[in-house]
Amino acid sequence: MTASLAAAFALHQAGPTVFESRATVLLDARLTTPATTPGSTPRAPDADTERQIVLSDAVLLPAASQVGLDTEAFREGLSVEIVPDSDVLNVAYTSGNRIDAHVGARALVESYVAYRTTSPGTVTVLTGPSLPDEAVTRPLANYLAVGAAAGLLLGAATALLRARTRGRIRGRDDFAALTGTPVLATVPRHRRPGGTVTGAPLMLREPESPAAEAYRYLRSRLHPALRPTNTTTILVTGPGDRQGRTTTAANLAVALAQTGRAVVLIDADLRNPQQHHVFQVAGERGLTTLLDGDATVSEVLEETTVPHLRLIPAGHRDGGHSDLLDSGQLARVLRAVEKHADVIVLDSSAVLSTADPIALAALADRVLLVGDFARTGRESVRRALAELAEVVHDNVSPVLVNAPKSAGTLVPRPRVRPAEPVATYHRDRLMSDADDVAPPGVTSHSYVAVDEVDDDLMADFYARTTTVAVPVIYGSTQTTTVYASSTATLVSPAEATPQDEPEETENAEEPEEEPAETVGSATTSDAVSD
User: Fold this and answer.
1) In sequence order, which ranges of 171-244 are alpha helices (DSSP H)?
2) Hey, CA dihedral for 167, 168, 174, 175, is it positive or negative?
3) CA separation (Å) from 179 to 170, 247, 400, 502?
4) Would you tell me how many other CB atoms lie within 10 Å of the CB of residue 39?
5) CA dist., res. 113 & res. 7, Å (int)
6) How far is C-alpha 60 from the geometric centre of its chain's CA atoms?
7) pLDDT for 205 beyond 60
8) Is 48 helix (H, G, I), strand (E, B) or coil?
């Protein structure tokens, strides 16, 4: 409120200086006929009509010419008002100069009086145009009233905003202060694919994005905690639901697998599992199957599209398996999974939603507490840490996701992949390839143009290969066999250069029908013998 009132006062003081010259004109009664005519009767003047006459071009054009302005510019500084319940007009002219204001008002009054002398009726100038001594004083109260209203609205909006965000995590430093340990990594905001809830992991969908680079940064920060010889178990959890646990677990697992480590991602959220949707696997058998003892680890491991990364889905759920997470069966299952992985990533439910994360945290080597900048409350973080305090010992690391740069988020630069050069192999390279695949006993070879063989056969040949350019004929004293270059790249006729054109030698033998058929069969192998 104070700032708004101060701004209003400053705006009032900084306003332009304006001088105003005023005059008062009395409208006399008109005569319906000339005064020399017997029976003449007066007619009351119409003040509104006279005001329109003053503002018409018939009056303004001579007045504007007298002061050296055009009609529109002169009209901007003019004001004509009718005094209520009277036949009096108040004429005012404003300008930034006191002399110009006086001259403008006088020119207007003179032009109006001159116009009325040519028509029935007259006007009387009651008060002539004055020469203003002081500038027009703008009412300060109006400015302060507007400033007070603006300040009230801004204050109310600020109070509502602070009330809504007061309980949220304010940034990286605030999250670190709440947890008592430095934030391990921050992930900037990123868009999810339209129309999906989970979608493919960001590390696969947008591997060059800043958010994907942030997950690689998280992987690097976790590197000292990874055991060089034994399996490391990492639990990913959070205070509440829909705060980035599943997304963080999936992308972290992909990032770890891309370094060559054998990673097993276990979906331990038995109430709302999502990892089988993320990696698009069946998910009929999984962790619950292992807890029941109905299958081995090898039987429930699901392969993913990421090398070195396998998934154990949550499996079939009937509501009673959550109790098994608190039993010794869970520890036996994890020991069995350790034989198949260098790193185990556990995706669990929220700490304040179920008791499952507490049981999992007791078996994990590292616990990642994921907080969402837009959704996680400060009080929920305190309560989650209090729930985990009995089973964790200085191995909880906070991770802040969906945070803007203003919250202290490190926004890595996106990776840019260099364009791969397209190699075009010419005649010399093709001849070198032909020499490499030549079988023993071959004495000579030459190139054969495409149009010298069956068109249908070559169409099928091109449709099934992108690595073989042209067929090569090898000649020997015993037989003639057609082979294909194994590393050449297809070049369209429009792009081919003269040196790319295959040429025939005098010693080359023309391909017969049977060798031409061999060209088609050469699409699936580097060399074909008879």
Assistant:
1) 172-179, 202-205, 210-222
2) positive
3) 13, 21, 12, 72
4) 6
5) 46
6) 58
7) yes
8) helix
H or E segment at 385? helix 378-388
Amino acid 120 reads: P
In the chain, % helix, strand, coil (3-state, to 5) comes to 40, 15, 45
8-state DSSP, 373: T
Residue 54 confidence (pLDDT): 84
**49-63, 141-155, 305-319, 486-500: lowest mean pLDDT where?**
486-500
Structure tokens, 228: 């060089």
Q: Comparing C-alpha atoms, which of 41, 61, 43, 65 is closest to residue 53?
A: 61
Euclidean distance between CA atoms 11 and 61, whole angstroms = 35
Distance CA 430, CA 439 (A): 16
Q: Residue 440: which of 508, 527, 514 has the closest Cα?
A: 527
Tokens of 410: 């490190």
Residue 70: exposed, middle, or buried by beta-carbon count in 10 A (0-12, 13-18, 19+)? exposed
Residue 136 in tokens: 């027009």
Give residue 507's identity as a one-letter amino acid code.
N
Sheet strands side by side (includes 343-347):
185-188, 396-403, 366-372, 232-237, 343-347, 263-267, 309-312, 302-303
Q: Output 78 or 310, whichever has higher pLDDT.
A: 310
- 445, two tokens: 């070879």
Structure tokens at 350: 């929220």
pLDDT digits (tens, 9 = 90+) for 356-405: 899 999 999 999 999 999 889 999 999 999 999 988 888 999 999 998 88
**Residue 114 CB coordination number (10 Å):** 12
Please state, in angstroms and rounded to a whole number, the distance separating the CA atoms of residues 171 and 348: 24
Closest CA to 406 of 247, 218, 188, 248: 188
- Is residue 429 within a helix (H) or strand (E), and if so which, with residue range? helix 427-437
Give Rg (Cα) of the chain: 45
Of residues 502, 437, 428, the one with CA closest to residue 474: 437
The tokens 């340990």 sit on which residue?
181
Q: What is the mean pLDDT of residues 420-444?
A: 54
Confidence at 460, pLDDT banded by 50, 70, 90: low
Q: What are the tokens at 479?
A: 């037989």
CA–CA separation, 252 vs 215, rounded Å?
6
CA diameter of the chain: 145
Q: What is the pLDDT of residue 310?
A: 96
The chain-wide mean pLDDT, for the chain, equals 76
Residue 186 has pLDDT above 90, yes or no: yes
Q: What is the DSSP letter of 351?
A: T
* Mean pLDDT across 142-152: 86
From the CB of residue 354, how many other CB atoms can be counted at a distance below 10 Å? 17
Nearest-CA neighbor of 55 among 99, 97, 93, 96?
Answer: 93
Give this prediction's pTM.
Answer: 0.55
Give the pLDDT band (50/70/90) at residue 125: confident
